[in-house]
């Protein structure tokens, strides 16, 4: 089932066989999204009402109906049951335990000559979290985005999410929002929802940043609105790469490959191993386990088109391949997996050992599941507290200290042809 490749130091062949999946944004999609953004800019709530009916079947006669009431949130909490609320609370604590270590502090530097300088760390004021609605509901997405935002000190955190004809937000999303302390939930999604929070309407306030996943229209809208607001990242299809030696359990390897393949026909699941025997057993396990899984068709398409096995001569080569592909999820199923951390340069999230499967990270390990895809782990990081703060530097120089810098600053400015810069310093010492 899985296509195979002998590495032999051939990165070009790896790039050809395993790095070519993309969901390109067509000109048609881009044009549709830009028309929606322009409409929302000009017509605000009226445009949102039109698109809610057109795309979601949600008919309203007053924009206030976009706002989820407190009673709706409480009803959602009641409907999911105590056990699911317990799971959400446990997930919340796991995420806090991990992400609180990312909280950065303002700092100051004091010099003997009276100079002060430092950096202020401030949480963003307003952030919108996009949560997919309809048949796909992801309360885990709420948790993964909201907890680091709250720890960062974001003051106003809101959710935008599409609804169907009944105008109801999925109760699992409401429950997750309640656990995270989010009180403002707007029943609007798609490109129009992104445009609404990017520019603001009479009903929905403008934010400073938009985070959260969505379909191609949502992703395109976020990209088009970048600059008016900040965004987290443009996430692509899911991916997993497993580095395994001859002692790895084929049953676990197969299960973990399929855990990502079921996401999307464009998802990528790759095994990098030193053992051809293991690869054979994994293929057998894929056939056996797939028989009792519900998303078999998607899994098959994903594995056939974007899955595979890469054979390497040793574990060092395995991590060379992994670092080159920079996977979203990296599982390490080798003897003494913790000892391999120094070999790993590029990965969104790393799962060490056979009892740390990737789905644990999707829900409850404490690490974040909003991760860079498509090789962008070479320069992007997992979502964290640092994504919801901004940094402002400051300095204070007494006159006597500036006097020791003035000549050099003036010369530097004139060298760059910026006389006004030079003058700004020089005028302070004209009387002298």
Plain-language structure description:
It is a single chain. A hairpin with a 5-residue loop joins strand 2 and strand 3 (116-123). 44% of the residues lie in helices and 15% in strands. The protein starts with a strand and ends in a 6-residue tail after the last helix. The strands form three sheets. It has a six-stranded parallel β-sheet, sandwiched between helices. A five-stranded parallel β-sheet has the order 6-5-4-7-8, sandwiched between helices. It has a three-stranded antiparallel β-sheet with strand order 2-3-14, with no helix packed on it. The model has no long low-confidence stretch (mean pLDDT 95). The protein is an alpha/beta fold and 432 residues long.
Quick recap:
The protein has 16 helices and 14 strands. The protein is 44% helix and 15% strand. It has helices at 11-18, 27-43, 45-56, 70-80, 82-99, 139-152, 171-180, 190-199, 216-225, 250-261, 276-290, 296-306, 315-325, 358-363, 399-415, 419-426; strands spanning 4-6, 107-110, 116-123, 126-130, 156-160, 184-186, 209-211, 230-231, 239-244, 268-273, 308-311, 329-333, 349-352, 389-396.
Strand order of the largest sheet: 1-11-10-9-12-13
**Structural class by sheet pairing and helices:** alpha/beta
Q: Give the count of helical stretches.
A: 16
Radius of gyration: 26 Å
Helix content: 40-55%
> What's the N-to-C terminus distance?
83 Å
User: Unreliable stretches, pLDDT < 50, 5 or more residues?
Assistant: none
- Shape call: globular
Average pLDDT number: 95
Main pleated sheet: 6 strands, parallel
Number of β-strand runs: 14
Q: Hey, roughly how much beta strand do the residues contain?
A: 15-25%
N-to-C series of helices and strands? EHHHHHEEEHEHEHEHEEHEHHEHEEHEHH
């Amino acid at each position: 089932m899985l296509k195979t490749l002998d590495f032999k130091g051939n990165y070009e062949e790896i790039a050809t066989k395993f790095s070519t999946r993309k969901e390109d944004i067509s000109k048609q999609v881009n044009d549709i999204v830009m028309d929606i953004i322009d409409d929302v800019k000009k017509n605000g709530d009226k445009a949102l009402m039109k698109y809610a009916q057109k795309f979601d079947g949600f008919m309203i006669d007053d924009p206030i109906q976009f706002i989820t009431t407190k009673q709706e949130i409480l009803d959602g909490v009641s409907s999911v049951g105590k056990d699911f609320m317990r799971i959400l609370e446990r997930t919340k604590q796991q995420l806090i335990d991990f992400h609180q270590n990312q909280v950065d502090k303002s700092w100051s530097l004091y010099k003997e000559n009276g100079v002060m300088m430092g950096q202020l760390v401030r949480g963003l004021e307003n952030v919108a979290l996009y949560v997919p609605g309809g048949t796909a509901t992801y309360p885990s997405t709420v948790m993964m985005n909201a907890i680091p935002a709250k720890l960062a000190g974001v003051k106003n955190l809101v959710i935008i999410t599409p609804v169907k004809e009944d105008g109801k937000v999925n109760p699992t999303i409401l429950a997750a929002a309640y656990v995270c302390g989010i009180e403002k939930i707007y029943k609007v999604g798609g490109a129009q929802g992104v445009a609404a929070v990017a520019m603001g309407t009479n009903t929905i306030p403008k934010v400073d940043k938009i985070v959260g996943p969505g379909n191609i229209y949502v992703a395109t809208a976020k990209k088009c609105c970048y600059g008016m607001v900040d965004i987290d990242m443009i996430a692509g299809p899911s991916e997993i790469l497993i580095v395994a030696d001859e002692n790895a359990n084929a049953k676990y390897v197969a299960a973990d490959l399929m855990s990502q393949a079921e996401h999307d026909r464009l998802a990528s699941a790759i095994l990098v191993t030193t053992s051809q025997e293991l690869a054979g057993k994994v293929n057998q396990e894929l056939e056996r386990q797939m028989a009792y899984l519900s998303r078999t068709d998607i899994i098959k398409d994903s594995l056939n088109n974007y899955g595979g096995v890469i054979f390497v001569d040793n574990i060092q080569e395995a991590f060379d391949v992994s670092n080159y592909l920079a996977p979203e999820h990296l599982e390490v199923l080798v003897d003494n997996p913790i000892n391999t951390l120094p070999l790993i340069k590029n990965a969104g999230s790393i799962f060490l050992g056979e009892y740390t499967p990737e789905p644990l990270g999707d829900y409850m390990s404490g690490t974040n599941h909003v991760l860079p895809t498509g090789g962008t782990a070479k320069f992007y990081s997992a979502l964290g507290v640092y994504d919801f703060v901004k940094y402002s530097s400051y300095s204070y120089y007494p006159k006597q200290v500036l006097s020791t810098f003035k000549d050099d600053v003036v010369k530097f400015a004139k060298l760059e042809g910026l006389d006004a810069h030079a003058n700004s310093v020089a005028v302070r010492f004209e009387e002298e």
